[in-house]
Amino acid sequence: MEHFGAVEAGGTKFICGIGDETGNLIAEQRIETLSPTETLPKVVLFFQEKSKELKIRIKSIGIGSFGPLDLNPLSPAYGHITSTPKTGWPNTDIPGFLRDQLNCACTIDTDVNAAAYGEYLWGAGRNLGSLVYFTIGTGIGGGAIINGLPIHGLVHPEMGHCIVDHDEKEDPFSGVCPYHSDCFEGLANGPSIQARWGIKPEELPSSHPAWDLEARYIARALHSIITILSPQRIILGGGVMQQLSLLPKIRLLVKESLNGYVVSAAITSGIDGYIVAPVLGKQAGVLGSLALAIHPPEL
Amino acid sequence: MEHFGAVEAGGTKFICGIGDETGNLIAEQRIETLSPTETLPKVVLFFQEKSKELKIRIKSIGIGSFGPLDLNPLSPAYGHITSTPKTGWPNTDIPGFLRDQLNCACTIDTDVNAAAYGEYLWGAGRNLGSLVYFTIGTGIGGGAIINGLPIHGLVHPEMGHCIVDHDEKEDPFSGVCPYHSDCFEGLANGPSIQARWGIKPEELPSSHPAWDLEARYIARALHSIITILSPQRIILGGGVMQQLSLLPKIRLLVKESLNGYVVSAAITSGIDGYIVAPVLGKQAGVLGSLALAIHPPEL
After folding, report:
1. B152 vs A contacts (CB less than 8 Å)
2. To which H or E segment does residue B19 belong?
3. How far is the C-alpha of A147 from the C-alpha of B151, rounded, in Å?
4. Do B77 and B126 belong to one domain?
5. Where are the beta strands (DSSP E) in A69-162?
6. What is the pLDDT of residues A118-147, one digit of tens each?
7. Which DSSP letter does residue B242 get?
8. What pLDDT, on a 0 to 100 scale, did the predictor assign at position A161?
9. What's the number of domains chain B is made of?
10. What angle do CA A22, A27, A30 make, to 5 degrees?
11. How close does chain A come to B65, measured CA to CA in Å?
12. What domain range includes position B128?
């Protein structure tokens, strides 16, 4: 049995894991995200100590990281975090550091592409060729698998910053995105809900009108996702989606918004199976990172 | 030298072509789009007569077609036009008919995926891994090549129907899309320009405010395209883009709209080379169809 490492590199915590080739996690540890010089050596120590304790060798490590990342294999900064506002982290080369310290191969992608890849291999996207995965929480991010591969390109998708239509009569709130004010993330992330209604999302009852408005923005973003990418399934995770009344509202509004234009049974009669919660739940990130290590996508 | 066929199947005309393996067209014919029983036999006749006259054998035919199309290889209706409002054409199997009559292999994709693929192999997308191609005219359609392959999925992209933000104070016109009123196509296709201003787009002078509004809607749609797909280049063709003042306006407004969020020299300092006109011009459709025949994408 071969063993692989996973690092879900987030802005507040790193989740490190070790798994076997079937995707079964046998060790896991949470490490607080401080500066790179404080956090990364602890990641190395986890893999060194655990592999000694378990008497295994780690063949390679997959990293699903906050970004933005340089994912151009021809770039000298390939694999680096680039222009993040997070102090200490710009130009950090997580895979380079782990490769040097642990002497094993490392693959990196965005946190949401990793989660999308995990769901594609082992979760809600099994047996499909394409899917989109969204996390809707403090930030909004989207990853996508198309023809079996994560989308890269000019940089990588930043789906949270797509355009939605903001009706200022219905919702005079101006949005919280520092770049675009009222893009999707600016109008629908957790902080925008709190700023608009003065109540934390987790304290808003399911009957509060906040959830109808939230479902509307998510549905309009998904309308664009479906017309632009035509994914075979859409998976919605993240803290805001813990409000369970949202998912049925979103499904209804996506159908209404597309208004019969996209002729597919998945939308016209099977939308409950088309827009779904993550099967891997909160482990989508770490398992997606493990998936990158075990089955590195051949780009 | 091997020879290949191309069929650009449009709502008003079919352009048929024969080309060699380098993409060089050696014969071309325009056939009016009437009913399938009138038009398709003429397509067959073109290939039969021309290949006899030129003393060549056509190895395979690529078809770039109006849609919607069933592009699921596992579907019994694979390759058929599905629910088009165009009389006589629903459930038409163009590749099946040509295969039977001409006894050669046929590959089909959407007209815009074909054009995107032609530009990818031989035009503005050479040496790139991804691009998006838009035609902006009577309709608005977008095709995309990601990791070297056209996007399919649930069905195929219908990018003209993505959401843009419609400011009804600035533009009280309600939009012409019969499904969504004020989606991108509803607010920015040729008929919407004519309906809003009472003048045909080709007769509007470049100084008319119509073009600022048009550029704004295109730029906002491209903002979503860039954040969702992150393509390495965007190609804008079609009748409306014949107004040459549009392209510089669009470039400026895309930069303004993204507001520094997507950190890439292609946008921050090289946008004139990032959002471009088609290199293949009006031949993008027929050459893209030829490209599908010569180098069928391995999906």
Report:
1. 129-130, 147, 230
2. strand B13-20
3. 8
4. no
5. 105-110, 131-136, 140-146, 149-150
6. 999 999 999 899 999 999 999 999 999 999
7. G
8. 97
9. 2
10. 125
11. 17
12. 115-281
Q: In chain A, which residue's Cα lies nearest the Cα of B177? A: A261
Q: Which B residues in the span 134-153 are in contact with A, Cβ-Cβ below 8 Å?
A: 142, 146-147, 149, 151-153
Q: With respect to residue A72, please indicate whether it lies within any of the assigned structural domains.
A: yes
Length of chain A: 299
B131 found inside a domain:
yes
CA distance B52 to B199: 48
Of B130, B155, B162, the CB nearest to A153: B130
For residue range A154-187, list pLDDT tens digits in order: 999 999 999 999 999 999 999 999 999 999 999 9
* Tokens representing residue B209 in the block: 């405010």
Q: Which residues does B105 contact at the CB level (< 8 Å), separation at least 6? A: B59, B60, B61, B99
Tell which of B96, B111, B126 closes a domain. B111
Strand residue runs (E) in B157-245: 234-237
User: What CA–CA distance (Å, rounded) separates A30 from A45?
Assistant: 12
A179 near B CB under 8 A: yes
Q: Identify the residue whose tokens are 């010089």.
A: A37
For every residue of A137-173, DSSP letters joined together read: SSSEEEEEEETTEE--SSS---GGGS-----TTT---
What value of ipTM does the predicted structure carry?
Answer: 0.96
Helix axes A246-258, A210-229, angle to 10 degrees: 50
